[in-house]
Design goal:
This protein is α+β, with helices and mostly antiparallel strands and 334 residues long. It is built from nine helices and 18 strands. Helix 1 runs parallel beside helix 7.
Length: 334
């Protein structure tokens, strides 16, 4: 069988390949999906429905759907997985399921469709940070190490046995956007190696070990900034909330989103005599660093701001607007 990927033709012996149904949503799974198309017989894509765009009523197709259509792969778009959806999947005759950021729990009847097994990609070292937001959990952890787990899909959330866990380094300046891109690229090689082992009957599974922890769905209130916390904590919250829901505080009685922060999570300034300052107070304006705001243990430098319904602005624009702003406060409430 011939399949075109990125303008290059790949020839596959279908009878020797896993017949994979790929389930995924969002940009994080795109690189793995393209690699699965290249190396295996991908018989279908399971993804979410088209969504309305930010402006107007025109619906926007997921990027992963467009990739599937370019490669003549059947697309099944669902809002839930019930009998009708299972029947459509069954008609494609898949024998293996690969899931990456699909966002729904697979029931036992659905999992029974895959005679050769299942594989889910989860961006944490399971059983740490089970749940829907491991990328955000990585940033909030303040750690310089994280991992991606490849697990068999179980009936409970992220509790399946492990094919392998692959560590990588965090720099301390990642946002959800940049870390999503990093995980997307990093996942490709181990995923393909594991799938080849499964195909050759050489894959091994082991139970998850250690104490479990959980992350949760993000909401707008998670962006509230409390400058009574440490520099590293405030730094992490700002990055973990970008690009959504965006960290926020109140300044001069107005809500303001904080969209950027200087340096890495441990980059606060503790060289000044801080005893005369209060948490949330603008201490200084520092060229090439930003607006210096007092936290519990030092100064954090904010680099980007946005007022509701307005465009993002730089720290220079912010200081010009408020005539330096030094001595004024960011608050939890108006």
């Amino acid at each position: 069988m011939k399949r075109n990927v990125g303008g290059v033709n790949f020839y596959m012996e279908e009878d020797k390949k896993l017949k994979i149904l790929f389930a995924g949503n969002g940009n994080i799974c795109l690189e793995v999906f393209k690699a699965v198309i290249k190396d295996f017989n991908c018989v279908g894509l399971l993804t979410g429905v088209d969504k309305k765009g930010a402006r107007g009523n025109k619906k926007i197709a997921p990027k992963i759907k467009l990739i599937a259509e370019e490669n003549d792969i059947p697309v099944i778009q669902v809002e839930h997985l019930k009998t009708a959806e299972r029947q459509i999947v069954s008609s494609l005759e898949p024998d293996f399921l690969v899931s990456f950021s699909f966002g729904r729990i697979f029931g036992p009847k659905f999992l029974q469709l895959f005679s050769k097994g299942t594989l889910n990609i989860h961006p944490s070292a399971l059983p740490n940070s089970r749940g829907p937001s491991p990328i955000r959990a990585a940033i909030l952890s303040g750690s310089d190490k994280w991992a991606i787990s490849f697990q068999e899909i179980g009936l409970k959330m992220d509790e399946g046995r492990l094919f392998g866990t692959f560590p990588f380094t965090l720099n301390g300046d990642e946002t959800v956007s940049s870390l999503t891109e990093k995980v997307s690229l990093f996942s490709v090689d181990p995923c393909i190696k594991i799938l080849n082992k499964i195909q050759d009957g050489k894959a091994e599974l082991k139970e998850q070990e250690g104490e479990s922890s959980y992350c949760y769905l993000v909401n707008k209130e998670d962006g509230a900034l409390d400058f009574n916390n440490s520099v590293s904590k405030v730094h992490s919250v700002i990055r973990a909330c970008y690009p959504w829901p965006k960290a926020y505080s109140f300044f001069n009685g107005n809500k303001v989103f904080i969209t950027g922060v200087w340096g890495k999570f441990n980059s606060g300034n503790i060289e000044l005599d801080l005893s005369s300052y209060k948490s949330g107070e603008i201490v200084e304006y520092k060229k090439n660093q930003g607006v210096g705001v007092m936290c519990s243990d030092g100064i954090i430098y904010l680099t980007g701001f946005q007022f509701p319904t307005k465009k993002e602005i730089t720290y220079k624009d912010f200081m010009n607007r408020f005539q330096s702003g030094v001595g004024k406060f960011f608050c939890l409430e108006k």
